[in-house]
């Protein structure tokens, strides 16, 4: 899943808080290994490690883990101190509740709340104290708390539903990377819903593993796409990384124990198709390899299953707005 790329929308959204604080963002982008010109192309995408580095750079430049979106700063080290406060709790429920109490000590902070609803647990983030026009911070907080909880108990918490109090955005197709579960927009609140059985699970981490975890978190929690167990993620895993060996739709349907007709219907319901999935995987693999100098563009075109480099050039420009050569030059 490491080849899953991130839309340039999220980079522009992440910078909004810094711009509001009056920072020149061009040097910050370069430190993160992102050429500012890349953001002028709406279809451009970046690698997860570039995005993680950008988040870290923004925290350092602003001394603010809320990246300029809060009424007050959340000084660097706040998240780490919260983790130290919860690491000795006996269960996930106690850890999450203590974490919400910790952040509740800060005035004007987004309120995070954990509650039970029958057999389910609901984690809610109230973003009313935020200046967050793209909903970037509130979505980041949902992702971070979900993945922190999963890390604490040593297994991925399967989300039943993600709800958002705002209208469905134009880039909603990207949410499958963050919330690979049913999503509802225009809800009464912004929250994650998961089975309450996870709350009783003991924490499998300790101060030793926490020290290693905090070397890169929560930036990498935010940047790492969630493979999950969605249909799209399952198909991507079955396709693999060598496009020349990809199975056809019938073979994939057989491996998923369903019929080709049913698979096509499920993909249609998710707003995609088998061909679009293959195109997106090719695109992400191309971006992954273009950020490295291991393969020439000609060799990469061949590995991606294109009959000739010119076909790869046309497809890549259609996907990202840039030619492979121009994209590699931006990365250099």
From TrEMBL:
Gene Ontology MF, one: transcription cis-regulatory region binding
GO cellular component: cytosol
Domain of life: Bacteria
Record keyword Transcription present: yes
SUPFAM superfamilies: Homeodomain-like
Record keywords: DNA-binding, Transcription, Transcription regulation
Residue ranges annotated for the HTH araC/xylS-type domain, each copy included: 229-330
UniProt name for this protein: Transcriptional regulator
Species of the source: Metapseudomonas furukawaii (Pseudomonas furukawaii)
């Amino acid at each position: 899943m490491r080849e899953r790329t991130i839309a340039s929308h999220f980079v522009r959204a992440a910078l909004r808080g810094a711009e509001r604080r009056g920072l020149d963002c061009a040097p910050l982008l370069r430190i993160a290994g992102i050429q500012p010109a890349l953001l002028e192309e709406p279809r451009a995408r970046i690698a997860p490690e570039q995005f993680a580095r950008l988040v870290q750079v923004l925290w350092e430049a602003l001394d603010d883990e809320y990246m300029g979106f809060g009424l007050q700063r959340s000084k660097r080290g706040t998240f780490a101190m919260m983790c130290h406060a919860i690491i000795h709790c006996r269960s996930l429920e106690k850890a999450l509740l203590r974490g919400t109490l910790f952040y509740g000590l800060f005035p004007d902070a987004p309120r995070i709340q954990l509650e039970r609803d029958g057999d389910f647990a609901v984690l809610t983030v109230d973003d009313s104290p935020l200046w967050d026009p793209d909903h970037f911070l509130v979505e980041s907080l949902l992702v971070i708390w979900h993945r922190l909880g999963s890390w604490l108990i040593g297994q991925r918490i399967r989300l039943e539903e993600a709800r958002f109090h705002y209208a469905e955005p134009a880039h909603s197709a990207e949410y499958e990377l963050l919330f690979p579960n049913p999503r509802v927009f225009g809800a009464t609140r912004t929250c994650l819903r998961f089975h309450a059985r996870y709350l009783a699970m003991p924490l499998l981490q300790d101060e030793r593993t926490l020290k290693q975890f905090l070397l890169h978190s929560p930036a990498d929690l935010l940047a790492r796409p969630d493979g999950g167990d969605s249909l799209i993620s399952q198909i991507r895993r079955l396709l693999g990384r060598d496009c020349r060996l990809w199975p056809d739709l019938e073979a994939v349907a057989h491996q998923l124990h369903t019929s080709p007709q049913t698979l096509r219907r499920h993909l249609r319901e998710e707003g995609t198709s088998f061909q679009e999935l293959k195109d997106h995987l090719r695109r992400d693999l191309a971006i992954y390899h273009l950020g490295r100098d291991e393969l020439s563009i000609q060799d990469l075109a061949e590995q991606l299953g294109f009959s000739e480099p010119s076909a790869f050039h046309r497809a890549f420009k259609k996907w990202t707005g840039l030619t492979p050569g121009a994209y590699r030059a931006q990365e250099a």
